[in-house]
Amino acid sequence: MDERVRSITWDGESLVLLDQTRLPGEVLLEEQRTVEQVRESIRMLKVRGAPAIGVAGAYGLVVAMREKGDLPRDLFLEELGRHATYLDSSRPTAVNLGWALRRVLRKAGESRAATGTELLQVIRTAAEEIHAEDIELCRRIGEVGLPLVTEGIGILTHCNAGRLATSEYGTATAPLYLAHERGIPFRVYSDESRPLLQGSRLTAWELQQAGIDVWTITDNMAASMMQEGLVQMVIVGTDRVAANGDVANKIGTLGVAILARYYEIPFYVACPSSTVDLATPRGADIVIEERDEEEVTHFGARRTAPEGIKVRNPAFDVTPHSLVTGIITDRGMIHEPYGENLRRVFGP
Q1: Which pLDDT tens digit goes with each residue over 144-177?
Q2: 85 contact partners, CB below 8 Å, separation of at least 6
Q3: Nearest CA to 291 among 45, 17, 49, 7?
Q4: 308 contacts: CB under 8 Å, gap ≥ 6
Q5: How far apart are CA 86 and CA 288, in angstroms?
Q6: Is 116 within 8 Å of 71 (Cβ atoms)?
Q7: Which residues are catalytic?
Q8: Contact present, 91 and 44 (Cβ < 8 Å)
Q9: Mean pLDDT, to the nearest integer, of 184-211?
Q10: Is 148-346 a domain of CATH 3.60.20.10?
Q11: Has domain 3-140 been given CATH number 2.40.30.10?
Q12: Residues 68-91: pLDDT tens digits?
């Protein structure tokens, strides 16, 4: 894979993130030198996508603690927990961030490491394992979803659930990359994804870089594309899957799912195991992040709404499980009844 498209790079000591707010005009790689910088990179969407921010958060703990090797075990663990809470506050909706941070904390707490230096190695190893697993999980998602990508099919996707949202391959795009590698011809319609344009800035860019036949459309063109018969399948990612199968994804996903149901087009959701949250009973229980109003009142640097206008800017919406045809995971395809099947596959 082209190094420019890699969202996260780790060489054993340094964490480098691709600043996705600069794409597609500029490819900027930023070394993350402090935990405050990592948190800000997550909060400002320089790194984004549920799996990617989980990996970034895990490495963020290593960045936070790499100068703390002289601390005794108890103080190291106390400081580690404080930084985990700090990083976890950056974005509330995606479950992977908290999952990755808790896993690093658990590994440190369960280890027999007696010194800060030894604990630093434990958390470094834990972060590297999360990173490697994300790559492997996304490949498995691709293999599970690959049979859905048939010759000549038109596929609609929303926001970015591609390589830029993960360590590699993506979630919703993983079947597309594998199908492209096998020479299967298909086309992709990438929703622009207002207000931050992740579909046009990121998904369209990375698929174009890979040589995939991709077309950018605005969000309000999706119905027309379906009506014309150009779309035979929808695949999106998700930031959290509730225990009943409801899915939280980028704002606008719910509308796409409703359209797909009306036009009798299958609507699939792709995600790794870490995105399934059995502790959250249903979508209504998911905390939805509300972002800065300027994302809505401005287009680029230009104001497009009246001064003083009231604004809502939820970053995500929740699609009911009744609109989901199947959930493509690294452990196989999950169908209705979602509550029963999610517990069976992902339960303890």
Answers
A1: 999 999 999 999 999 999 999 898 899 999 999 9
A2: none
A3: 45
A4: none
A5: 19
A6: yes
A7: 239
A8: no
A9: 96
A10: no
A11: no
A12: 999 999 999 999 999 999 999 999
